[in-house]
Amino acid sequence: MGQGLVGAIHGFRETEKSRWSEASRAILQRVQAAAFGPGQTLLSSVHVLDLEARGYIKPHVDSIKFCGATIAGLSLLSPSVMRLVHTQEPEEWLELLLEPGSLYILRGSARYDFSHEILRDEESFFGGRRIPRGRRISVICRSLPEGMGPGESGQPPAAC
Ligand SMILES: O=C(O)CCC(=O)C(=O)O
Ligand SMILES: [Fe+2]
């Protein structure tokens, strides 16, 4: 985990994965085609985060040192609510219902000007509707930080 996230995630385990089955590779390719432009290079490994039912992620902006312009996350198992809050104007916010099998893409203003968080079970509501949290697994693809080509990256932290 990169420096920016230390302390932000509670009740989890995680791994960085670079070898996938053929079936999984086909899915990751669909994610990459949907979320990343042809000029974008991805971090060499994919971040897999396993959040327990009581786990949650506090508001943060992924570090620009370890992560480029695009973050794409596939949510599996339990639905959850992701909240985005503008870092300068906290009254500007929105929530996303992340259904299992859904893909979110953070780029542009959503990536840089808004923090993102995954609500804990007690706070897990979407438009007044309760979204009970169970175990959730996310598979997160990120682009390399700007100016860092695959050749120059050495051993980049695989996640933010
Ligand atoms: O689990 C997710 O979808 C988001 C995880 C996250 O925000 C991070 O690892 O920086
Ligand atoms: Fe994040």
From TrEMBL:
GO terms for cellular component: mitochondrial matrix. Gene3D superfamilies: Alpha-ketoglutarate-dependent dioxygenase AlkB-like. The lineage of its organism: Eukaryota, Metazoa, Chordata, Craniata, Vertebrata. The keyword Metal-binding applies. One of its GO terms (biological process) is programmed cell death. PANTHER family: ALPHA-KETOGLUTARATE-DEPENDENT DIOXYGENASE ALKB HOMOLOG 7, MITOCHONDRIAL (PTHR21052:SF0), SPERMATOGENESIS ASSOCIATED 11-RELATED (PTHR21052). This is Alpha-ketoglutarate-dependent dioxygenase alkB homolog 7, mitochondrial. Residues 15-140 form the Alpha-ketoglutarate-dependent dioxygenase AlkB-like domain. Keywords: Dioxygenase, Iron, Metal-binding, Mitochondrion, Necrosis, Oxidoreductase, Transit peptide. Belongs to the alkB family. One of its GO terms (molecular function) is metal ion binding. Its cofactor is Fe(2+). It comes from the Eukaryota. It is found in: Mitochondrion matrix. Required to induce programmed necrosis in response to DNA damage caused by cytotoxic alkylating agents. Acts by triggering the collapse of mitochondrial membrane potential and loss of mitochondrial function that leads to energy depletion and cell death. ALKBH7-mediated necrosis is probably required to prevent the accumulation of cells with DNA damage. Does not display DNA demethylase activity. Involved in fatty acid metabolism.
